[in-house]
Amino acid sequence: MTNPNSRFGIHGGQYIPETLMNAVIELEEAYNHYKADPAFNKELDTLFNEYAGRPSRLYYAEKMTKDLGGAKIYLKREDLNHTGAHKINNVLGQALLAKKMGKTRLIAETGAGQHGVATATAAALMGMECVVFMGEEDTRRQALNVYRMRLLGAEVIPVKTGTATLKDAVSEAMREWTSRIDDTHYCLGSVMGPHPFPTIVRDFQAVISKEIKEQIMEKEGRLPDAVIACVGGGSNAIGTFYNFIEDKDVRLIGCEAAGRGIDTFETAATINTGKVGIFHGMKSYFCQDEYGQIAPVYSISAGLDYPGIGPEHAYLHDIGRAEYVAITDEEAVCAFEYLAKTEGIIPAIESAHAVAYATKLAPTMEKDKIIVITISGRGDKDCAAIARYRGEDLHE
Amino acid sequence: MSNIRKAFENGKAFIPFITCGDPDLETTAKVVRAAVANGADLIELGIPFSDPTAEGPVIQGANLRALSGGVTTDKIFDLVKGLRKDITVPMVFMTYANVVFSYGAERFIKTCSEIGIDGIILPDLPFEEKEEFLPLCNKLNVDLISLIAPTSENRISMIAKEAKGFIYVVSSLGVTGTRSEIKTDLKSIVDVIRTNTDVPCAIGFGISTPEQAQKMAELSDGAIVGSAIIKIIEKYGKDAPEHVGAYVKSMKDAI
To answer: How far is A344 from B227, CA to CA, in rounded Å?
Structure first.
């Protein structure tokens, strides 16, 4: 019988080869043990605060607020974390857990490269071996991150199969895990895959909404009216939403990558264009054809270029608790440039999807309303690609 | 009683795996007939999937070739209808959970039952998730095949007790593909299976040579071979049937 803890409504589960079942069961047991262990939590808190630089700032974007003329806008600055994105939260948690489990080797998939860099960083810090699978197409789009991972001592394996992007990197990491389990932990980068990954990753990322709540109470004395985050697999979004789920007056808004538009095939907007399916270990929404073949999705953002979404998001969508909107490449690029010029902050192109929606939403809201946008990562890695998008050839 | 048991009544079973539509469905039909004519006891037909996470590069390639050729689940159902006019050996589908789920589980399994598919192997559907399709499979008399892996350990008896049709014993860690050596202690796995069920078990993953097949069949009730056959099909294309036939004969003779 399906593990009841593995489900979010109908979504989730453990749709993986038998070869991996004992590994995920062992992982769940270890996680349940350590999450209740004060020493583990103290160690993780120290890593968060002293190494990753938490808590991340909640910054009042005054110029943006004035320019848009509506709701007050705050930015949750996950881009200021060590390694430049929210990914480090999950990775420090999983690497520490893996170490406690006696594992000596971390493997990971990466899209934009931020999760790969974070995993390589944690592996370097904790003295573990590290192998990162990255779609060949993404190794081109994010060459700088490939170099960073190698500099940190990780081996980067370009994945040539399928669309040579994030989904293929996940498939290849899963294949690698089935062939080497004893000493290896698969450090999955998003709230996806088989149970217990969606829960573990969510718990480690929930620090984002925990801090937002404390910080906004301190600054404004009340909760925000909306929190906005970009969604690929959905880890920074679930981290942003999680501690607000019970606060029904807070709108939870996830921004999917529409690519060239949700009416085209060149999109990665899973909730907006996909249907329920079973893939990469989970039941959730997936972009797929009528026979269940997974669609070759597209987005300018390597980190959102994924045909599925985490099962908890699928559930929050089903029950109407969270909204999922689609943002095109063009809108995201404009928001990328807008935030740079308005606030002097260059967001990751992924995060720019959330900024783009905020620029549409804020003007429709009263001035006493509050929006929090999670800036999940910094945009240095994207500058060359955005320059190319604008027709400028930039040599790094 | 399951029709699949017939496959194990003629000595040790030789079970070839063939990806439907690689390079095209006409060739698949000829390959299946050649395999049966040369002693194949059960045919494992792969319905291609875009992202076959349990497969190594060889079968991934076959999936890709078949899908680029325009193969669909419906066209494969038609292929089976044609084969069932003269092929009587048991046939099972090997595919991924999403192929069944997206077609509509009831519609998929009902069609299997109607066209003479005896079982379904889904490598991404472990024991814990089999309720997804098991009630329909039981109702429509299609065996949902269980897999047991080198890492199953304490799970073997639980899986074996509820197994139907035959048990697919995965020989090695990792994905499908030929291996020069199989190191898993398969005898002790099969011993645990035997104490829990009389459902036959066959070993697959990594088998390519007659010597390996003979060794694996000796430990169990049969040998399953995929990648080695796909390689022949990849090499000879439309001319593959006679080569696959000769290969199947050498393997069946060996076991």
So the answer is: 55
Structure tokens at A109: 């998939």
The ipTM estimated for the assembled molecules is 0.96
Q: Are B102 and A178 a contacting pair at CB < 8 A?
A: no
Percent of chain B scoring above 90 in pLDDT? 94
Residue in A18, A175, A176 with CA at minimum distance from that of residue B169 = A18
From the CA atom positions of chain A, what is the Rg in Å? 19
Bridge partners of residue B168, in order along the sequence = B147, B202
Q: Say which of A171, A174, A279 has its CB closest to residue B98.
A: A279
What strands, in cross-sheet order, belong to the sheet with A11-15? Answer: A7-8, A11-15, A281-286, A275-279
| Residue spans per domain, chain B | 3-254
CB contact under 8 A, B124 and A15: yes
CATH architecture observed for domain A55-84+206-389:
3-Layer(aba) Sandwich (3.40)
One-letter identity of residue B249: K
CA distance B42 to B36: 8
Q: Which fold would CATH assign to domain A8-48+86-201?
A: Rossmann fold (3.40.50)
Say what angle helices B227-236 and B57-68 make with each other, to 10 degrees. Answer: 50
The verdict on B145 touching A (C-beta cutoff 8 Å) is: no
- CB atoms < 10 A from the CB of A60, how many? 15
Model-wide pTM > 0.80? yes
A386 contact partners, CB below 8 Å, separation of at least 6: A333, A336, A337, A349, A379
Look up residue B141 and give its two tokens.
């008399």
CB atoms within 10 A of CB B221: 22
Q: What pLDDT is attached to residue B191?
A: 96
Q: Are A133 and A150 in contact (CB under 8 A)?
A: no
Which of B187, B175, B185 lies closest to B217, judged by CA?
A: B187
Q: pLDDT tens digits for A326-355?
A: 999 999 999 999 999 999 999 999 999 999
CB atoms within 10 A of CB A338: 18
Minimal-distance CA residue of chain A relative to B134: A1
Please tell me the distance from the alpha carbon of residue A159 to that of residue A173, in angstroms, as a whole number. Answer: 10
Architecture in CATH of B3-254: Alpha-Beta Barrel (3.20)
* Cα A94 versus chain centre, distance: 15
Residues forming CATH 3.40.50.1100 domain(s) in chain A: 8-48+86-201, 55-84+206-389
